[in-house]
Write a structure and sequence with these properties.
By secondary structure, the chain is of the alpha+beta class. The protein is elongated and about 95 Å long. It starts with 5 loop residues before the first helix and ends with a helix. This is DUF3592 domain-containing protein.
Amino acid sequence: MNPRRPVLRVALLALTAALLGFAVIAAVLGWRAHRYVSAYERATTVVEGTIVEDGIGDVGDIRVRWMDHAGREHVQRFGIYDTDRYTKGRTFPVAYDPAEPGSRGFPADPDETSEADDLVVPILIAGFVTVLVVLAWMLRGLLFRRAAGQPRRLMMASVLAGDRPDGPPISVGNSTWVALAEDSRRGPDRWQRVMWHPAVDSVSGAVPVTVHGDVSSKRRVVIELPGQVRLVPIGRLRHRPPKRVVLEERSDVGGNLHDFVILPAGASLPENRRWWGRAVIFALVGTALGGLWAILFAGGLAVPLAAAAGAVLLVNVWALTGAEP
């Protein structure tokens, strides 16, 4: 990763994924909603149909037999809200387009907007989630700028890798922690979680750092490594080691292949994995999980849309946790 503003690159990647995912969902469902409304507005002829089956599926849809003015019989499934009113054997008003009597029918009851809502509500939900993601990144940036403007002091710091043995089955990777001490003669008494930065890979043991913020409080602080590299904090400053997180020296949990492999003359190792590689992995996993969920519980158009939503969600979870790639 380019050492200049790597966290900004991760944030932009996550935001781009969120906005692109929302654009896809809104475009597909918006187009379907537009076609539905256009067809509904042309359905000006109303006939009485008979409910031949009710309680279909988990949401209690009904199946209606109705006949157009040309004498053609139709049997069609409708989604409804008032399942107590529309039961088997009762009538159900159906509207259809007189210019195309062979086309589909629509509920003539203005209160029964289930099918239209099924197209509009997911757009609103996707928009709401996208706004939350954008606000989360904006808040993190504002808190970083606020902490970076606080008075500074010199301290000793050790960069640690955090792992949760009892964490979820899908791990986003090791978290990055900085243990702070007043000086080299004392042990650490403050712990701040930060977003991963390539500069932490070059930190070994305790090094002098500049800390922006009040270390006597629990407010997050910005830690500036040698070379004017400022780490973006995640969460509050802790006065005790984090629970359920095992902290280890980074040299004990990872390293560069060049540190462990002796190569013959003229040979070289492949380049390190790209910083966005884990984002691609989580996008693929999210696509698979979202698509599988839709196949099991919804089907149809929901499959590609849920796959897109799953990819966006997991990419942003990975990015917001600040795990190392």
